[in-house]
Amino acid sequence: RDRELNLSFGRRDLGNFRVNVFWQRNSPAVVVRYIQSEIPTIAELGLP
Prior knowledge:
Layout: E1 4-11, E2 15-24, E3 27-35, H1 42-45
Antiparallel strand pairs: 1-2, 2-3
């Protein structure tokens, strides 16, 4: 009914990914996001 799929997967040689497949304007669309294995610190991000 919503015509949406969310999933995540990882590969040792590539890293981790989140994938969202959905319909937009009567066409299929895909978003792939790379998830870093190490979370940067606030200092590394340059935040106060």
